[in-house]
Every structure is written in structure tokens, then in C-alpha cells.
Amino acid sequence: MSDLRKVYEAAGQGHLFKAFEKLDGEGQQQLLAQLAKIQDPSKFIEEVQDAIKYSSSISGSKTFAPLPEEARASVIDCKPETMERWLSSGLELINKGKVGIILMAGGQGSRLGSSAPKGCYNVGLPSQKSLFQLQCERLSKLQDLAKTSTPIPLYVMTSGPTRQATEEYFKDHQYFGLKPEQVVFFNQGTLPAVSTDGKKLLLESASSLVESPDGNGGLYKAIYDNKLLDDFAKRGVEHIHMYCVDNVLVKVGDPVFVGYASNNKYHIATKVVRKRSADESVGLIVMDQETKHPAVIEYSEISQELREKTDSEGLLLFRAANIVNHYYSVEFLTQMVPQWISDRAYLPYHIARKKIGCIDPETGEFSKPTEPNGLKMEQFIFDVFSSVDMAKFGCLEVDRSEEFSPLKNAPGSANDSPETCKANLLARSARWLKKAGATVIGDEVEVSPLSSYSGEGLDKFADATISAPKIV
């Protein structure tokens, strides 16, 4: 304890020990355990200072261009034979047990008025299925399509607040038809909050730091800390599809995407959708002009002129909207993950100014501020794109109406709400049935993920009339 205290005092964090002697043994051990996780507090504070400087730098100093044509493909205008080749390749890899899934599910449904994990949320479908159930049933259907006897491993990344509830939810629902041994739960890490000047760690109580999840970029450290690379090797997994739980239309383990990426021998690939409009506030997948590596830029980093600029086909020049849906070669992850988490150049901290409840170490009184009083750190999953050669990076454009409808906002919001998610999934169901030759009457007709993964297998409804409400 005395050695740890000296390290923290040398780093300007002596205030953390103001009430230490008054704590009972359990409280002292709790604080020391938290502090021990930060191997070098002086270095951490230096990295926070770097993040503050980075956030205040001029974003317009970046130069970028659309990805080169050879790094891009689109399912919207792809040749049928190419799509079939990708599909066959992906299904073959799944059949051989070479594909795993990482589900990012650390968030709570607080914006939705729920304290449960977001994956437990029900957007109001006729089936009343939650996001978790829809996605697990899609995975079951994919296993059937691939005719595999090897269950596809599903790695579910949770956070401290969601871990127990998520595991219990899966157990209470018999893993939604999956085998318990194919589902692996693991936690993302946390990062301590600091004062607005970035120099002092904040205390939630005399025995605990203020901590928050380390962002989606924490995936890589979580993979390393939880020895998932070893698990991939043990199971023979060579390809990973990663996605976020809040996308109600996601194609879990999409064999077309896996086939596209594996056929091209990409280290990392990403799915994108076309921007709704020039002013849609989304991140964009681009090429850094200076390094010639892939990157993601924020909406604010592109001028109005470039937002509205079009190409020779009349499409927005910068239109590749990031939907955080990625493919990884396990060989590349095994090589790079240790580097990514040890070198802050790959995964810098990004800051968010927040109102953070904390105690005054001098008085021991807890306060809830009305104005931002601190900084929370997070990491972004796409920052590691800078380590990928452009020749080893692929970007697959997909149809938004088929594959992307995120649940981000409270009920009643204009976009990305439970209502829009429900409407988009039901609209997709109706399209699939009509394409199969059915007549659909009403809006409440839902195709179960166990009936069809991507619109296939619905021929039995040809010439049928299906009236709402109905689940097929």
C-alpha cells in the first residue's frame, strides 16, 4: 500500500488518500484494487493531457478523400454472380467452423427509459421479441443455412452494469435456442474520470474512483484481457464479424460480408450505408490523404461544400456512413491487438465533458453538479484503421432498408427510435413476402428470423394473402 501511495502522490494524486485512514479494511482494499489497475498514473495523466490538446486542435487540418475504388464494393449494384460467390464462400467458412461473432452489448437502455441492458429492449413487434432474441434466432437460422454441425461462437461484450443482467436474461430464455457453450460473455474495461483540467482523478466515494466504460475501442483490450485470441485458436475461428446490439436489422454473421472480406484477404473490412442526405450527422469512412490509410471522420470535420459535392453518377462523393459493423481477420487481430493496446498512437483517448457526481476530498461531501465539472475518457473502435494498409481494407456498401435501423433515441423521436425500428423491420418483412409472391394486407406482418435469414425460404407463401396481425 505504501508503495502504491507513493506512486500516486508523485503523480499529483495524493488527494485520493485524504480519507484513507478512516476507511474500514474492505473500503481500503477496494480503493487500492482500483488504483492498482492503473499501472502508471503519471503516464495516464500525460495521455489525458494529450487528449485535451487533440480535442482542441483544428479539425480542418485533416485532409481526406473517398476510399479508392479498389477498396469499395456495393451489394446495391453488384453482379448476381459476384454476390453468389461471396455468399457461397461465407457459408462454406461457417460450415467449417471458421467464423465467430462479437456482439457489442455493453450499453443500458437509459435513453429509452430502461435500466436493463439495451439488448433486452422490445421495440413493439407483433412477436414482442427483444433485440437479443431477434439476433440469436438469426444466428440459429444462419447455422441451418450453412448446414454446420459446429455452433457459431457468439462472444457477447458486456460492461460492469450490464454483465449480470445480460447473463441472467440469456439463461432465463434458454439462450434463445443457442447452445450455452457457444455463448461467451466478457466485460469491456473502464477508465477513470478526471477534473476538467485533466490533472486530478475524481472520487465517487472515499473508497472508489469515478469510472465509466472505455468506449467501443475498449473491445481490443477486452479481447486481450479475456484471452479471446486463445479461444479463437482453440475453436479454429479465423474470421470475426462484429456488430452493435442496437441495430434491429443486422444480419448476424452475414455470409456475404464474410465471403467478400475473406475472398479479398482483407485484414479489416467494414459495412457502410449511403448517407440519407448531405447533412445527415454521421461519421464517414474515408482515406487519410497524408498516410493513405483508411480513417473515419466526424460530420463536423467536413465542409458544407464537400458534404454536398457529388460524383459523376450524381451520388454524394462522401457518402459512406459508418455503422460500426466490421470484419476482422483473426490472424491480423492476433498480430496487432497487443500493439494496439500498448501504444496510445493506435488507440488515443477521446474526451467527453460531463456533469459528474463526485466527492470533495477535502470535505468528503458528495455533489451533483449542474454544469460539466469533469472529463470522461473513451476509445474509438475505428482508430486502429490507421494501422491497416489500404490494400488490406475493404468497404462494403449495403442497403440501409435491409440492414441498418439503429435504436438510439427515446420513444417518439423522429429517427432511430423504437417506432422507426419496428416500422423498418416490418417493412422489410413485407418486401420479402411480396417478392415471394404473397399479398400483404396491413402493417403488422412480421417474418420471424427462424423462418428466413435474408428473404429466402418464403416461396410457400407465393399467391397467399397474409393479413395483419401475423407472424410467419
UniProtKB/TrEMBL annotation:
SUPFAM superfamilies in alphabetical order: Nucleotide-diphospho-sugar transferases
InterPro entries (alphabetical): Nucleotide-diphossugar_trans, UDP-sugar_pyrophosphorylase, UDPGP_fam
Gene3D superfamilies in the record: Spore Coat Polysaccharide Biosynthesis Protein SpsA, Chain A
Entry's EC annotation: 2.7.7.23
Pathway involvement of the protein, from the record: Nucleotide-sugar biosynthesis; UDP-N-acetyl-alpha-D-glucosamine biosynthesis; UDP-N-acetyl-alpha-D-glucosamine from N-acetyl-alpha-D-glucosamine 1-phosphate: step 1/1
Catalytic reaction(s) noted: N-acetyl-alpha-D-glucosamine 1-phosphate + UTP + H(+) = UDP-N-acetyl-alpha-D-glucosamine + diphosphate
Any one Gene Ontology molecular-function term assigned to this protein's record: UDP-N-acetylglucosamine diphosphorylase activity
Species this chain originates from: Ogataea philodendri
Keywords: Nucleotidyltransferase, Transferase
Protein name: UDP-N-acetylglucosamine diphosphorylase
EC supergroup of this enzyme: transferase
Family the UniProt entry places it in: Belongs to the UDPGP type 1 family.
GO annotation terms (biological process): UDP-N-acetylglucosamine biosynthetic process
Keyword Transferase attached: yes
Coiled coil: none
